Amino acid sequence: MSDPQPPARGPYPAVAPDPLGLVQRRTMRVLVVMQIIGTVGVGVAPSIGVLLAGEVTNSEAWAGLARTASTLGAALLGLPLGNLAARRGRRIALATGWWTAAAGAALLVAAAQWSLVVPLFIGLLLIGAGSAVSLQARFAATDLAEPHHKGRSLALVVWVGTIGSVLGPNLGVPGEIIHRATGLSVFAGAFLVAAACLALAGVVVFLRLKPDPLLTLQASVPSPAAPAGKKRAPVRRILAELRINRPARFAMIAILSAQVVMVSIMTMTPVHLAHQGGSITVIGITISLHIAGMYALAPLVGFIVDRHGHRPSIVAGILVFTASATIGALRPADTGWIMVSLFLLGVGWSFINVAGSALFSRVVSTETRASSQGGVDALANLCGAVAAFAAGPLLAASSFPVLSVLATAVLLPLAVLTVRRRHKTG
C-alpha cells in the first residue's frame, strides 16, 4: 500500500487568519448580547421611572427634576467612564457603568417600596450610567472595525438597543408578577428586574470581552509618549485635539446639534398631543414610532454611511429633520401627521448621529479616543437635558409650530459647515 500523498497545493499561498478581524468579530458578539440585556434595564428609567417620580414626590416641579435625573447622570458619568476606558480598557469601563446603573436600580427598588425621595434622585442619577455605557458601546464597536465598516458596526450596536427600548417600558408586567409573589410594589418589582438585567450585562462584558478591543487597538497603533513633566489631564488633551482636529470638531457639532433638535421636540410632543385631547394610547404609539425611527433603520443608515460617506449622510439627516419640523409646523392639530413628523424626527437623528459618531471614531487620535468619545456623549446628554428644560417654557410661551421651527434653526450652523467643507474622511 503506497504512502498517502500530501494534499495538492494551489497556485496561491494559504492566507493567515487576521487576528484583529477575529477579535472584532468576538467583540461584536459580546457587545450585541451585552446591549440587548443592559438596555432592558436602561429602558425602564424614561417610562416607569417617570411614573415613579410623580408618585413619590407628589410635586410636579420635583417630579420634573427627577425625570431629568437619569439624563443628567448620563452626562455626569460619561466622561469619567470614558477616561476609565482610556486607562483600563473597554471591558472595565463598560462593566463599571453597568454595575453602577444596577446599584441605582436597586436604590429605586427601595424608593418605590417605601416612597423615599432621596434614594429616588440618587437611583435615577446612577441609572444614567447605563445610558452612558450603552452609548459608549457603539464606539467600542468601531475600535477594531475596518474603516469602510465602522458605520455598519456602530449602527448594529445602536440597532440592538431597540430591543431594550421596547422591552424596558414594559417591565411593569413582570413587576405585577413579582408583586403578587412577594408583596413588593409593582414599581419596585419592575426596578428589581431592571437591576438584575443591568448587573448581568456587566457580568457578560467583564467575563467575555477578552481581549479588550481598545487595548488591542492601542497596542497595535502605539501613540507617541508625552514629554516628561508635560502629561496633561484628559480634558485638556481632548480640548487640545479638538482645537487642531477639524473633522472631529465637525463630527461633534453634528452629534450635539442632532441631540438638541431631537430632544427638544420629542419631549414636548406628548404634552402637545395631550393638550389636543390625545389619549395615552395615541401618545404611546407616537413615541414608539419615534423610537423606531431612531433605531430600527440604524443598520441601513450605517450601510449608507459606509457606502456614500459621512457628509452626504449628514445632509440627508438635515433634510429629514427639516421635513419633520415642516410637518409639525404646518399640521400641528393633525395627530396622524404628528406621528409622521415624530417618525421622521427619529430617522433624521439616526442619520446624523450614526454618521457623526462614525466620523468621530475614524478621525480622533488613539491617545484621546476613549476620553474624547466619553466627553462627546457627556456633552450630548447635557445638551439634551438643557434642551428638555428649555422646551417646556418655550412651548408654554408660544406654540408647537414655533418650537418646531426654533429647534430646527439649531441645525443652521451644521448645515453651513456641511456645505462649506468637503472632508477627506467622508
From TrEMBL:
<dbReference type="GO" id="GO:0005886">
    <property type="term" value="C:plasma membrane"/>
</dbReference>
<feature type="transmembrane region" description="Helical">
    <location>
        <begin position="280"/>
        <end position="305"/>
    </location>
</feature>
<feature type="transmembrane region" description="Helical">
    <location>
        <begin position="184"/>
        <end position="207"/>
    </location>
</feature>
<feature type="domain" description="Major facilitator superfamily (MFS) profile">
    <location>
        <begin position="27"/>
        <end position="422"/>
    </location>
</feature>
<dbReference type="GO" id="GO:0022857">
    <property type="term" value="F:transmembrane transporter activity"/>
</dbReference>
<feature type="transmembrane region" description="Helical">
    <location>
        <begin position="92"/>
        <end position="114"/>
    </location>
</feature>
<feature type="transmembrane region" description="Helical">
    <location>
        <begin position="312"/>
        <end position="330"/>
    </location>
</feature>
<feature type="transmembrane region" description="Helical">
    <location>
        <begin position="402"/>
        <end position="419"/>
    </location>
</feature>
<feature type="transmembrane region" description="Helical">
    <location>
        <begin position="65"/>
        <end position="85"/>
    </location>
</feature>
<feature type="transmembrane region" description="Helical">
    <location>
        <begin position="153"/>
        <end position="172"/>
    </location>
</feature>
<keyword id="KW-1133">Transmembrane helix</keyword>
<dbReference type="InterPro" id="IPR020846">
    <property type="entry name" value="MFS_dom"/>
</dbReference>
<feature type="transmembrane region" description="Helical">
    <location>
        <begin position="336"/>
        <end position="364"/>
    </location>
</feature>
<protein>
    <submittedName>
        <fullName>MFS transporter</fullName>
    </submittedName>
</protein>
<feature type="transmembrane region" description="Helical">
    <location>
        <begin position="120"/>
        <end position="141"/>
    </location>
</feature>
<dbReference type="Pfam" id="PF07690">
    <property type="entry name" value="MFS_1"/>
</dbReference>
<feature type="transmembrane region" description="Helical">
    <location>
        <begin position="376"/>
        <end position="396"/>
    </location>
</feature>
<keyword id="KW-0472">Membrane</keyword>
<feature type="transmembrane region" description="Helical">
    <location>
        <begin position="250"/>
        <end position="268"/>
    </location>
</feature>
<dbReference type="InterPro" id="IPR011701">
    <property type="entry name" value="MFS"/>
</dbReference>
<feature type="transmembrane region" description="Helical">
    <location>
        <begin position="30"/>
        <end position="53"/>
    </location>
</feature>
<dbReference type="InterPro" id="IPR036259">
    <property type="entry name" value="MFS_trans_sf"/>
</dbReference>
<keyword id="KW-0812">Transmembrane</keyword>
